[in-house]
Amino acid sequence: MLKLCKNKSGKDMKAERSSLSIEGFCVRFYDSINDINTVERSLILPKHNLFLNAEYLQILENNPPEGMQFQYMVFCLKDEPVGFAQCQIEHFEADRAVSGQNSNSTNTTPGFIDTMAKYMKGFVASKVEFYTLLCGSLLLTGEHAYHFTSRVESSLHFKLIEEALNKLVKHLGERGLKISTILLKDFFDETRSPYLVNKSFNEFTIQPNMIMDLKSEWKNFDDYLAALLSKYRVRTKRARKKMGTLAIKELTVDEVTAHKLTMHELYKSIADNSGFNVLNLNVNYVPEMKEGLGDDFMVFGIFDEEHLVGFYTAFLNHDELEAHFLGFKKELNRSNQIYLNILYNLVELGIEKQVHKIVFARTALEIKSSVGAKAVEMYCYFRHSNSFTNKFLNPLLSYLRPEAKLVPRHPFKEES
Questions:
Q1: Residue 295 has pLDDT above 80, yes or no
Q2: Would you list the domain boundaries of the chain?
Q3: Over the stretch 148-163, which tens digit does the pLDDT of each residue have?
Q4: Does the domain made of 16-207+378-400 have the CATH classification 3.40.630.30?
Q5: How many C-beta neighbours within 10 Å does residue 164 have?
Q6: How far apart, in whole angstroms, are the C-alpha atoms of residue 269 and residue 284?
């Protein structure tokens, strides 16, 4: 796998600069978030999105999933920074990704790529290897691709992004990295892009994002229980009883570090059994996130006496709680309903933190619906560098899209 050379000086690197067709605009490309000076970062990185925060991006960059590299784009209008986009380069090897089993159990990957990839398993059964340039994040579900200041009209956003990505592909090619596909993800219905479709991108969806709105009057978990229909309230109490002697504890930085190998094994035991696993999480990702982000990244351990048998993580992203990676002993899930209890604990945590919504992400749609989450479609855009191949992607993606298996649940009294 080709790795781009990094700037190790610790000083601002002279970025590759390229003019754009819209008068006054240009884009600069960076290998590291640290190469963008702090003044520019303060102007263009949004305060309301943790996942476009320099500290989060640097931790991810320092502890990347296997095969992932990073690029960043800074947009300027008459030399004033007015926009930012994060890009990830994923080295995809089909024969490494495909595993011998297919599991109906809970998938631990909250991001997009594992969900998409397992439905492409038959298509890439033979050896395929290529580089994908992604605008957004494979580790997250939601609009975390870019941000522009108010100086840039929203009608120009996708035009600037698309042209800049084309130039970045050319720039990377000159450095010896051939990009075969470009992917932009995830966009809500109100921000989807006819412009990208007109530029030969294939618009598609995979599985919806499961999002739960929390009521402002809920001050504790008992208030949530009181809002449930009787049968769902009974189900909740029964699930909590099934935890038995298993104990859940929020972990400190030192505790996360001490348990990091076990946590990684628990994560891998489920991720590797998903049938098609592209994302291989770095063993230091969770402890480094905890150390770097503190209270904004929470890690909970599930213990059978002193033995760690499960864990789950969540980001506090301002007024949202974002469920993240987890893992547990699969044999305990049926007897102790670990996964369902994790969902209830996230609801309780969201109420405690007084957030407006919980982003449960993709996968395990029905069980998330049963605790109160609603399905929200997210739109993605995919283009192959070969125009002939690209013509066949739209029908292929439609064919590979899983049938809608979600039967929406309505657990609240007000919905009955």
A1: yes
A2: 16-207+378-400, 210-376+409-415
A3: 999 999 999 999 999 9
A4: yes
A5: 26
A6: 17
